Amino acid sequence: MLLQVLSRKVPFYQLDNDPQVKEAVLRGEHPLRPDPKNVDCDAIDKPMWDLLEGCWEMKPESRPNCETIREVLAANMKTQDARPPAAVGAVRKVATNTKIDYHRVKKILHRIKDTSISAGE
Questions:
Q1: Is 78 helix (H, G, I), strand (E, B) or coil?
Q2: Entry's InterPro entries (predicted)?
């Protein structure tokens, strides 16, 4: 999926049909690196391509672990978190001023429980 997101090309885009893709995978082949000079796609830089190839390894022990994947993505994805900082204090204030009618909650939960028992769940 990451290959398609980065390049706008599906894996094995150069093959004509699913049986050809299946055979290529069974032979241990990896998808071709899309080249913007030859096809309509976005370029994938070397660190990201190396990560993709590592993830496609047949032997699980040869694949990168989650920490390695996180590090490569963090170092190479050019995204910024534009969200405003969380207003934790405001959330706590609202939460502490909330009054919960526990007796009513208990009645509602019992009603739900009784309904699901009578329905045979």
A1: coil
A2: Kinase-like_dom_sf (IPR011009)
Instruction: Quick: pLDDT tens for 58-68.
Output: 999 999 999 99
What is the pTM (predicted TM-score) of this model? Answer: 0.59
Q: Which range scores top for mean pLDDT: 19-23, 79-83, 113-117? A: 19-23
| C-alpha–C-alpha distance, residues 64 and 54, integer Å | 6
Helices (H) and strands (E) in the chain, counts: 6, 0
Cα dihedral 6/46/19/40 (nearest 10): 50
In one letter, which amino acid is 15?
L
For tokens 């590592």, the residue is 54
pLDDT per residue over 91-107, tens digit each? Answer: 666 666 678 889 999 99
Q: Are 36 and 44 in contact (CB under 8 A)?
A: no
